[in-house]
Q: What sequence folds into this?
């Protein structure tokens, strides 16, 4: 129940980020909807393709589709007001990637993959919706340029396996790993921590 | 037999639309072929990925590949004359999306999906070849910007389930739903009906 | 053992080509890594999606991931020196597409596909990593514009089936077909052979 609520909040946050990018590109109503939908479900879809989990999750349950449709209608109607929600959106989005990462990690565990592959799956689940959103809008994906985003997912994903070694119930480790992703992301943004610069020369 | 003929006409129309976009970008022979092929089979391929129908349809039967190869050769040889065929091409394309939509809807029904997901699958089958074509050519997909295209697929897809409720043989409902997609598209283009504008300010 | 070594050399060459493109676009560390990884494994991943071979190959064995991580670290540390390696890189890359093509062809044979589809699978395995790399970096894929690349894969793929008709052990035909891909590519580059120009008018 709690997880479902977070999952839906994450879907909403991802869908709204899609609406915002699509409206900046002045796509039509259908384009805005598709970009919102792909942002929300793209990562999970790629994850399901990679492990052969078909029909993919969002086809088995209409909840995601309905949540995105309602979110898009709401976001378009109140597009002028959305800017006042930026802080809440950032929070939803951060909670969303925390949960999506761990959902992906667990799918990998269920599929019998190595821990490093489970973490990869989790990171793909959390991050690739945004990558596909940016490709559809003809941009170089934003997470390739200035976000610590993926790094939080990777470290949080590995923390799940560390917590697993400790003497506590597995669902605690699961929840703690979500918290690790969220905290790392919040701290990185708060203290403007980024990846090390790999370019010698200024440009 | 009839459906097969329409299917091949649709494949030809989609492939030619790919050739036209690729030649505008001045891709080489191989690039033109790939873009034509992806336009023709991209939607069905994504549909097959989503429901786990592998090997995907075009790998099981060489017809599609051969039709695209012949179409590309023809289209390049007669590229100067293609502009006189625009009206026929539009008709083929419209018939093509009608058929592709319903092929996708039925695949969804066979996979036991909810009606709304079947309609989604049908729309993906009909529309995503063009989306992938535009991404490969580094354009924002045209159906996100000015086409009523997808809306015709969605409404036609739902009409299939409505016709299903009426006392008539299922293949009639199937054929009628194809006609609905085609008519909606023709009417939208004829009367310049578009999606409602979601932007307040002119730009 | 020999094949594994070649496979790893191919992975390294593809990964380095990804690093070079990504650094030109000034992506961050994570972006460079993802582009390198996708270049190295993208073709094989699409192949596995198409035939339903899941979890995809690189998820079942951490070798590819590890090789790419080490390659990226090395390539970034020595990015100034990489330009002196261009000739070796071209050679690795050429050997890589030779091997990747035949790996894809054999997967198609195992899946019971028609020869023309096996050749298509092989070409996808060898070429689509680079296509996805260019899409992620917001470029029209380079192989659509000026490379004979794919043609070498296609002809080499068909040669496998020709060699199969001759009275020699199958692994000889396999190895010879790899040599055909490599030789065609080297000859095309050496003698500047390209695809025929399909445009009448200069631009």
A:
């Amino acid at each position: 129940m709690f997880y479902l609520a977070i999952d839906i909040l994450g879907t909403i946050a991802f869908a709204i980020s899609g609406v915002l990018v699509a409206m900046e590109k002045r796509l039509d109503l259908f384009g805005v909807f598709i970009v919102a939908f792909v942002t929300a479900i793209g990562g999970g879809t790629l994850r399901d393709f990679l492990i052969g989990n078909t029909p993919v999750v969002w086809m088995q349950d209409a909840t995601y589709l309905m949540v995105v449709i309602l979110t898009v209608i709401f976001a378009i109607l109140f597009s002028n007001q959305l800017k006042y929600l930026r802080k809440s959106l950032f929070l939803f989005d951060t909670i969303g990637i925390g949960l999506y990462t761990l959902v992906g990690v667990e799918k990998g565990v269920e599929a019998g993959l190595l821990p490093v592959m489970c973490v990869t799956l989790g990171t793909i689940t959390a991050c690739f919706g945004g990558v596909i959103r940016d490709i559809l809008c003809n941009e170089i994906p934003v997470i390739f340029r200035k976000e610590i985003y993926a790094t939080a997912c990777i470290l949080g994903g590995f923390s799940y396996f560390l917590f697993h070694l400790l003497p506590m119930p597995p669902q605690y480790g699961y929840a703690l790993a979500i918290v690790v992703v969220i905290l790392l992301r919040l701290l990185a943004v708060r203290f403007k921590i980024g990846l090390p610069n790999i370019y010698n020369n200024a440009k």
